[in-house]
Amino acid sequence: MIFRFFLLLIGFGLAVSGGVSMIAYLNYVTAGYTFVYYLKFIALRVEFHLFLIGFIMILISIYIPASKR
I need a labelling partner for 17 at 20 to 30 A (CA). Which of 31, 45, 50, 54 fits? Predict the structure, then answer.
């Protein structure tokens, strides 16, 4: 149980740090770049990968069933 909670906290931290950076990069759209360019740019950034890893860790901590003892 404590492992799942720890996994949830780490995943939440990674997802938040990646998500905030992705929102900050939205300023490129207002600077004149297209939204497609933004998506291509974000797909290659480390922040996007942190966001995905964090999101997957959150899903695993919530939906993987607990072991039966």
Answer: 31
Q: Decide: 28 and 39 in contact? Cβ < 8 Å.
A: no
> Each residue of 21-47: pLDDT tens digit?
999 999 999 999 999 999 999 999 999
Q: What span, in angstroms and rounded, lies between the C-alpha atoms of 5 and 8?
A: 5
Could you give the CA distance from residue 17 to residue 20 in angstroms, rounded to a whole number?
A: 5
Position 37, amino acid: Y
Contact between residue 13 and residue 54 where contact means Cβ atoms under 8 Å apart: yes
HEC profile for the chain?
CHHHHHHHHHHHHHHHHHHHHHHHCCHHHHCCCCHHHHHHHHHCCHHHHHHHHHHHHHHHHHHCCCCCC
